């Protein structure tokens, strides 16, 4: 989708759908902004007639489709309710643009013009970014496996104009819209990967997708297969993946890397051209279980089809690294993906097994369905030892307990550094991806100790999300680290204005906001 920014006269606009957001309290033509009123009069006052009828009141759920006279430069007009003007923020703008594009897709209207609503809370550049994000996210469809005639199904929106009343700095608004487009396209990549069925996206194919993306945007990419995993002693990833005929992988993506991942320590000395100082290294680690049956501790069959989304954390890392490259984030960003398929078989790991990880720590397996933390143990250790990062952030659809605690409305955030946790929370708030701090107590860490091995991978139902985080904490040491449990936010069964049913791609915008503002915030 091509997103453009303009401040031209509305009467000069030509499009298949003109979306006009209006606030509560616009009862008649005289309350329309002058530029809208002038256009409406030229089209025969169809908007004024709708407002006068009372059929549209401007509430957030309101929408009315209006057809101007035949031959008009605008084929359709969509009125969208925005609610109270003072309450309109960036998230409201994302929803507005998403609603406009989703309706355009249904109407098979490829070109859209959206009148940027007024309001004091969001400045033009931030508005342009939010609207671009909502538009591109709202246009996402996952229909690769549906056979549908082109003249019967929906059509893609190919272009959207964001029409401002006036722009003091049009260049800033256009740059912001371009940034929002990159973020949304990267999030859509994460959505697509997560939506892929497990038979089409085993660990090897997930690795290939990461390699393909890396080549397109100029990232370094290293893929470790089973022989290399064995050589390095990554027993956690190997154990989880040994029950499947699709072998596991560890994928390493690097932005601002000078050579291959094997020379990482020398790469840390690469200096920023602007400051002459070493670029800070931030590691993003994603759980990449391409399908999770639970293994020997098999899950109930109801809902198991959604376990293709158990690699949502890995998908978010792929999307975030793409955006970091395209937006030229001035950091050394490393993305690590622990990819495996958790299936029951004669070769699967079992309850009671003891697994030795890359760190040297051993894990007593009490529940093979607590596999995500086992693969992350190796990926976190590799991130800390190989890159000596300034901070580590992992994303994982880790626990049902976090879903119970926060539902689908927030991602749980755990960590060993209060400043980093707060930065994550603020980044989520700014990006429209709510992240909520959760407790990680010494008792949660103690609960994961085993009498047979160094750690156990399950500790019962009590505080399950926090004890899982306590397990992961054992593999990062004193390095500032946060764990994002996206079990409740990684996919959805309820469509929203810019979110269809299925994968959400959650985490991409949050991570990029964290990276974008990294040098501005307090050191962790």
Give an account of the 3D structure.
It is a single chain. With about 525 residues, the chain is of the alpha/beta class. It folds into 2 domains: about 1-165, Leucine Aminopeptidase, subunit E, domain 1, CATH 3.40.220; about 210-515, Aminopeptidase (3-Layer(aba) Sandwich), CATH 3.40.630.10. It is about 35% helix and about 20% strand. The protein has an 8-stranded mixed sheet with strand order 7-8-10-9-13-17-14-15, sandwiched between helices. A 6-stranded mixed sheet has the order 1-6-5-2-4-3, sandwiched between helices. Strand 14 (about 410-415), helix 13 (about 420-430) and strand 15 (about 435) form a beta-alpha-beta unit. The longest helix has 26 residues, at about 170-195. The protein is elongated, with a radius of gyration of 25 Å.
Quick synopsis:
This protein has 524 residues and is α/β, with parallel strands linked by helices. It has 16 helices and 19 strands. The protein has helices at residues 34-42, 46-53, 90-107, 124-138, 170-195, 203-217, 226-232, 235-241, 264-267, 312-326, 372-387, 400-406, 418-431, 442-446, 464-473, 508-516; strands at 2-6, 17-22, 63-66, 77-81, 111-115, 159-163, 220-224, 249-255, 281-292, 332-342, 354-356, 362-364, 391-396, 411-415, 435-437, 455-456, 481-485, 491-492, 502-503.
Whole-number count of domains:
2
Q: Poorly predicted ranges (pLDDT <50, ≥5 residues)? A: 26-30, 259-264, 270-275
> What's the CATH class of the largest domain, please?
Alpha Beta
Report how far the terminal alpha carbons are from each other. Answer: 38 Å
Question: Which architecture of the largest domain per CATH?
Answer: 3-Layer(aba) Sandwich
Number of strands: 19
Strand share of the residues? 15-25%
Determine the structural class based on helices, strands and strand pairing.
alpha/beta
What would you report as the Rg, rounded to the nearest angstrom?
Answer: 25 Å
What kind of sheet is the major sheet? 8 strands, mixed
Rounded mean pLDDT score:
93
Portion in helices:
25-40%
Shape: elongated
Assign the CATH superfamily of the largest domain: Zn peptidases
Q: Taking strands numbered 1, 2, ... along the chain, how are they ordered across the largest sheet?
A: 7-8-10-9-13-17-14-15
Number of helices: 16
CATH topology of the largest domain: Aminopeptidase
């Amino acid at each position: 989708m091509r997103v453009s920014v303009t401040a031209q006269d509305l009467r000069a606009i030509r499009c298949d759908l003109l979306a006009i957001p209006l606030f509560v309290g616009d009862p008649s033509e005289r309350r329309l902004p002058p530029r809208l009123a002038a256009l409406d009069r030229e089209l025969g006052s169809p908007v004024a007639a709708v407002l006068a009828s009372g059929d549209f009141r401007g509430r957030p759920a309101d929408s009315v489709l209006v057809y101007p006279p035949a031959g008009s430069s605008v084929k359709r007009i969509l009125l969208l309710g925005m609610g109270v003007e003072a309450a309109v923020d960036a998230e409201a703008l994302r929803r507005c643009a998403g609603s406009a594009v989703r309706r355009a897709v249904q109407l098979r209207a490829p070109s859209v013009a959206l009148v940027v609503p007024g309001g004091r809370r969001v400045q033009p550049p931030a508005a342009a970014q939010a609207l671009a994000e909502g538009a591109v996210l709202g246009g996402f469809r996952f229909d690769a496996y549906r056979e549908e005639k082109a003249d019967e199904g929906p059509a893609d929106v190919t272009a959207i104009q964001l029409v401002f009343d006036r722009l003091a700095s049009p260049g800033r608004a256009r740059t912001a819209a371009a940034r929002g487009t990159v973020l949304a396209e990267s999030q859509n990549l994460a959505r697509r990967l997560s939506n892929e069925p497990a038979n089409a996206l085993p660990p090897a194919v997930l690795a290939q997708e990461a390699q393909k993306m890396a080549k397109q945007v100029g990232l370094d990419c290293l893929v470790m297969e089973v022989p290399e995993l064995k050589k390095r002693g990554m027993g956690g990833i190997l154990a989880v993946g040994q029950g499947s005929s699709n072998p596991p992988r560890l994928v390493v993506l690097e932005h601002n890397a000078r050579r291959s991942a094997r020379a990482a320590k020398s790469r840390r000395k690469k200096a920023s051209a602007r400051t002459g100082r070493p670029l800070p290294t931030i590691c993003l680690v994603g759980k990449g279980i391409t399908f999770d049956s639970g293994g020997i501790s098999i899950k109930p069959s109801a809902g198991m089809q959604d376990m293709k989304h158990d690699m949502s954390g890995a998908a978010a890392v792929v999307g975030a690294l793409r955006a970091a490259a395209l937006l030229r984030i001035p950091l050394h960003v490393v993305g690590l993906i622990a990819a495996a398929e958790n299936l029951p078989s004669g070769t699967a790991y079992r309850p009671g097994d003891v697994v030795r990880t890359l760190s040297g720590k051993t894990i007593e397996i009490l529940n093979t369905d607590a596999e995500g933390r086992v693969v992350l143990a190796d990926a976190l250790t590799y991130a800390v030892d190989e890159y000596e990062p300034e901070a580590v952030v992992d994303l994982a659809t880790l626990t049902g307990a976090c879903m119970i605690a926060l539902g689908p409305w927030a991602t749980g955030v755990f960590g060993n550094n209060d400043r980093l946790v707060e930065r994550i929370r603020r980044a989520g708030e700014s990006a429209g991806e709510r992240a909520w701090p959760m407790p990680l107590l010494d008792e949660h860490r103690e609960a994961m100790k085993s009498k047979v091995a160094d750690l156990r991978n399950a500790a019962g139902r009590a505080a399950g999300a926090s004890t899982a985080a306590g397990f992961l904490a054992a593999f990062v040491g004193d390095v500032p680290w946060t764990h994002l449990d996206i079990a409740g936010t990684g996919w959805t069964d309820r469509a929203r204005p810019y979110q269809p049913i299925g994968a959400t791609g959650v985490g991409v915008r949050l991570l990029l906001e964290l990276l974008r503002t990294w040098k501005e915030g307090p050191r962790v």
